[in-house]
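Async update (no meeting this week)

Hi team, since we skipped the sync, here's where things stand on the single-chain job. The sequence we agreed to prioritize is pasted below, unchanged from the tracker. I ran it this morning and attached the output directly underneath so nobody has to dig for it. Comments welcome in thread, and please keep replies under the output.
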Amino acid sequence: MNEYLIPANTKRGRLILGLFRPMDLTIFAIGILTTVLLLAIVPLDSTLVTILVLAPALITGLLVVPTGYYHNMLTIIIEIYQFVTNRQTYRWKGWCCRSGEKK
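Output:
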């Protein structure tokens, strides 16, 4: 009996901690590094300045947070961009269409 069972989550084994791609962690690390540098350089005198200094880490953190049917928010944004910028006219080529063939 040559029956093989392939688990549904085989791609998770290629992810870091089962959640992140190397690119996701790179983006998040750049956001954290930027925030740490800004915290060291910019004086935090007001609430607005503090929010602006923390924004890179918050934004990149929200981009790489895991979501439901997609990998993360960055993947959703990329998919939406590709959908909007690609061709929106779909040609029907099904079982009831002859595809230009004459009988």
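Quick observations from my side:
The CA atoms of residues 11 and 65 lie 17 Å apart.
The helical segments are 22-41, 47-64, 73-85.
Reply here if anything looks off.
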